[in-house]
Amino acid sequence: MDHAAEAQRTDLMTITRHVLNEQSKHPESRGDFSILLNHIVLGCKFVCSAVNKLFQAGLAKLIGLAGEITNVQGEQQKKLDVLSNQVFVKALVSSGRTCILVSEEDEEATFVEPSKRGRYIVVFDPLDGSSNIDCGVSIGTIFGIYVVKNKDDPTLEDVLQPGKYMLAAGYCMYGSSCTLVLSTGSGVNGFTLDPSLGEFMLTHPDIKIPKKGKIYSVNEGNAKNWDDVTSKYVENCKFPKDGSSPKSLRYIGSSMVADVHRTLLYGGIFMYPADKKTPNGKLRLLYEVFPMSYLMEQAGGEAFTGKQRALDLVPKKIHERSPVFLGSSDDVQEIKALYAAAAAAAE
Ligand code: P6P
To answer: What is the pLDDT of residue 97?
Structure first.
């Protein structure tokens, strides 16, 4: 093995080391952010272990539904949803670095008691795509991190910040392998859990999304409810007018993490548009749209709502929804141009 390969093989760049290296570029940092991220990583390791037990042992059928519990979305929760949420909340509170938590599973925001309070806000979906638990499709955790204005007097206003003010965002995908994709504001890196070490190892340094892709990803089952622009864009994907090859449709559905991860690595566009049935789309702004849009922009891609840059949106409620078109910049710009042309024609 040559020296470079040997050096890389023995370098053991774990996520902890990587984050510490990045934080060392900020002389003012006191290590709080690294401690917070370590607690998020701990939560991901737990969920990864629990999900693997389900996938491997087919325990899913024993898990079934958690009785009649229903979460704020009116969907039925599976026990792993409940467990994952509890593990993340406990890990984040015990980190002593958070002051407000917003979870997809909790109707209200959690305000951490003063004695355990830090200056970070974490918004997260502890187990996105949980309806896939029983069929083995990759599911994931999505998170975003803000800093609070005044940790001694945190308010809900502190949470309702545009996504562009996030300090970090990421997701952890639980599938054939456990992959954590993270940005702390200077690019995107991917880490894969090495079960023999119990560490997330840097496997995808400096991820950049291709400028243009060959895949479009949308739930075509909603086509009858789409607006004209979305319909026209999808038509162009299938029957390009410029003589190029049609794009391929890839849609895992009910697992945003899996669809976005493929888009990030292979390029193309993922979209959950507004439609007549869901005028604000289906995806949650704070803990689905913002973190994934942040990652896309950090990887050289774009994220658009149909009206504006997704990260510029100002949330009014912690569980509000937003349409989103995200992915390769050329592909997102194509749909932006169609919306602009439609707006001009309507004037
Ligand atoms: P549909 C999961 O419920 C989720 O919120 C996202 O993970 C996923 O992208 C979307 O819904 C899929 O929705 O309507 O296509 O099943």
So the answer is: 96
Question: Cβ(282) to ligand 1 under 6 A?
Answer: yes
85 CB near ligand 1 (under 6 Å):
no
Number of neighbours of residue 79 by Cβ within 10 angstroms:
18
CATH number of the structural domain 7-204 = 3.30.540.10
pLDDT tens by residue, 225-239? 999 999 999 999 999
The two tokens of residue 300 are: 């050289």
C-beta of 278 in contact with ligand 1 (< 6 A):
no
* CATH class for the region spanning 215-346: alpha beta
CA distance 305 to 271: 9
Locate CATH 3.30.540.10 in the chain.
7-204
Tell me which of 75 and 22 has the higher pLDDT.
Answer: 22
Lowest-confidence range among 273-277, 308-312, 319-323?
273-277
Q: How far apart are the first and last CA of the chain?
A: 65
CA-to-CA distance for 152 and 37, rounded, in angstroms?
Answer: 22
